[in-house]
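S.,

Sequence below, as promised.
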Amino acid sequence: MNPAPLSPCNRICTVDEISNLCVGCGRTRSEIATWGGMDDRTRRGIMAELPSRMARAGIAMNEGPRREDSAGKC
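The prediction came back faster than expected:
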């Protein structure tokens, strides 16, 4: 059995109309849609960018837990 893919999803799944980023996790719609097919290295690279990406967009980074069981289900 494979473990669930690492995901920043915290189930606050709303896309900001100005930045086009999810206000819960900071990913783009495209990243959310393709998350399940990404390898862990790519996912970790995107996750490393999320705090600064959200800060540039003026979206407060949610400090909720990083989920490993949501696999980009936003």
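Residues 34 and 40 are 12 Å apart (CA to CA).

Coffee later?
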